[in-house]
Automatic annotation (TrEMBL):
The chain crosses the membrane at residues 20-43, 166-189. Keywords: Membrane, Transmembrane, Transmembrane helix. Residues 193-218 are annotated as: Disordered. This is Capsular polysaccharide biosynthesis protein.
Amino acid sequence: MTENHARRHRGPRLTPPRALPPWSLVAAGVLAGGLLGGGYGVLRPAEYTATSYLVAVPGERSDAAGALGFAQVYGRIATQPAVLADARAAAGVPVAALRAGVRTATSPDAPMVAVSATSPRPAEAAAMANAVAGALTRRADAARAGTRVTLVPFTRAVRPTEPSSASAGVTGLVGAAGGGLLGALALLVRPRRGPEAEAPRPAPVPGPAVVDGARGRR
């Protein structure tokens, strides 16, 4: 009877919590990264890019190699403050907007300069690219006597019809990939638990009968 009384007063047996499977970290990272990436793609305004192309043409006492070299030079100076200030009126935007949205590219094999402009408005992107290309052409004409190279328009920038920025689906996939990678790294660096630490056995709670018996022995 004393044994039954002790069993009733031991209290409930504690069950250790079940550990989550290892792949849950990766799944949580993929889900969180996909949600964040998709949300960024939805909230970010779309951007449009237009490109104008210029060609360096050699003049008298010049050759193709000279034209190629000056095309590289003009590609570097296209985003300089003096050129952007000259293009500001035609573009209809401040110089700071031109500095942030205009990029140039050149080819090591062809004497061509690409002037690209990015803006949330398609018409503004085309106007910015054409304005900077026109300002660069005027700079090249002013220096033609010394360079013996003429910079002429090849194609003007036209109003883009589709955004150049990534869609919400693409940003969501990128975010999901990044989140999955972080989850996998967290899975690799997490501390390992031994078999004894995974399921600790709770100590039994002594009942009143056990305490009384200990007092009687004293």
